[in-house]
Amino acid sequence: MNKVIDEGIKNINRYESKPNLTKNDIKKAIDHVLAKIDQNLDKYTNKFPTASSKDLVYGELDNVDWTASFFTGMLWLAYEVTEDEKYKNVAKIHIQSFKERLEKRIQLDHHDLGFLYTLSCVSSYKITGDEESKEIALEAAKLLASRYYDKAEIIQAWGDLSDPTQRGRMIIDCNMNLPLLYWASDVTGDSSYKDMATKHIAQASKYLIREDASSFHTYYMDTKTGEPLYGNTKQGYSDDSCWARGQAWGIYGFPLSYSYIKDWNLIELTKKVTNYYLNRLPEDSICYWDLIFTEKDNEERDSSAAAIAVCGLLELIKYLPVTDEYYEYYKNASQMMLKSLITDYTTDINSDANGLLLHGVYYKGGDCGVDESCIFGDYYYFEALVRAYKDWNKYW
Ligand code: GLY
Predict the structure, then answer these.
(1) How far, in Å, from the CA of 253 to the mean position of ligand 1?
(2) Closest residue (by CA) to atom 1 of ligand 1?
(3) What pLDDT is attached to residue 2?
(4) CA-CA distances (angstroms) from residue 216 to 51, 170, 231, 332, 353?
(5) What pLDDT is recorded for position 51?
């Protein structure tokens, strides 16, 4: 592990008091989510929402993008909250689509097998015990494991493994894909998946996190020698800035690895990564799309990063002793962000908007989904609400 500095929390006063967010507020927000899901249920039974909306309306796609599982994950959350079979029935149709996608290898040359098969099939197996879902998810884990390089000890993020432009590239988002591998070891007893994930998260800690606790979006390793090469960005503002959603993937993903391998270094690192993030939030606690920006800049927020960060903080504090110097601040920060999302960042229930969160940014540099709803933001918003509402067993 390299040496990463802890900035501490600079504006600590703002996190000293607990925001007023009642169980009833959360229940009302969940009802809003359920109403939006109901509005979308027919449309997304045999199709999937696009990654981001256009003029606040998601399009329809076949099961081809890395984001296809987020609506399925929302269906499982809805089923858990309501026990209404209609959500499970549509999720089961989705599972067959994920099965076919895997059999036909439709657009699966990337590490997002984790997102795709955790939220569709692992969740299904965990909630219902369905054996077919388990088998599909295990096949997906095998395919994900085939992207691992022994020498570099990383899982390659994007592209065919023969593509020289992508060879040896790991990205911070992969933190969220590793749970599929840990889970596969747990259910099969084959430790090789867990070994790969454990080695990958160590490399991610060492190279994706910079000395000041900010993150590179992506980092190249030499797959022949195992030597580190260089970091750069894809979706952030610049190679040396800190893409907000990347930092949020760090806040959530490191504690998820901790939950499986119990390496305390991961928690220590998460605290530093979290403090860097908290220190760069504007007044309403919802980050700009890159943490380089401040109130002076005329830049968009990224509500999706905020929703991911809330889930990450709630996961992190599960492992912190209440006596930890940051415990209360993190708890309050998560509630402040959630309250801000509920109050100022949700779509109008009576509008044509079919997403949940306003003001997300998918890929600013590609001019794609800027100041729109993002389906992953919607999923994590719902997960954050469910986490705040009840005891919840994670799908990850
Ligand atoms: N994993 C890609 C993204 O966060 O946009």
Answers:
(1) 13
(2) 173
(3) 65
(4) 23, 10, 6, 27, 33
(5) 98
Angle, in degrees to the nearest 10, between helices 303-319 and 264-278: 140
Strand (E) or helix (H) holding 180: helix 178-188
In ligand 1, which atom is closest to the CA atom of 245?
4
Q: How far is the CA of 83 from the centre of ligand 1 (A)?
A: 30
Residue 141: is its pLDDT beyond 90? yes
The CATH code for residues 12-389 is 1.50.10.10
| Digit-coded pLDDT (tens) for 45-69 | 999 999 999 999 999 999 999 999 9
Two structure tokens written together for 148 = 């691992």
CA nearest ligand 1 atom 2, residue: 173
H or E element at residue 3: none
* Rounded-to-integer distance, Cα 102 and Cα 91, Å: 16
383 lines ligand 1 (CB under 6 A): no
- Strand 48-49 to 368-372 pairing: unpaired
Token look-up 């801000």 returns 340
Q: Compute the half-sphere exposure of residue 323: CA atoms within 13 Å on the CB side of its CA.
A: 0
Write the DSSP symbol of residue 262: -
Q: Where are the domains of the chain?
A: 12-389
> Can you list the pairs that 319-323 forms with residues at least 24 positions away whose Cβ atoms lie under 8 Å?
319/255, 319/258, 319/259, 319/267, 320/267
CB of 110 shorter than 6 A to ligand 1: no
Q: What is the pLDDT of residues 280-313, one digit of tens each?
A: 999 999 999 999 999 999 999 999 999 999 999 9
Residue 392: other Cβ atoms inside 10 A: 14
Averaged pLDDT, 328-349: 97
Closest of 325, 278, 307, 321 to residue 388, by C-alpha? 307
Cβ of 235 below 6 Å from ligand 1: yes
Handedness of CA 152, 157, 162, 167 (dihedral sign): negative
Decide: 302 in ligand 1 pocket, CB within 6 A.
no
3-state secondary structure of 359: coil
227-236 long-range contacts (CB < 8 A, ≥24 apart) are 229/168, 231/207, 234/171, 234/365, 235/363, 235/364, 235/365, 235/366, 236/290
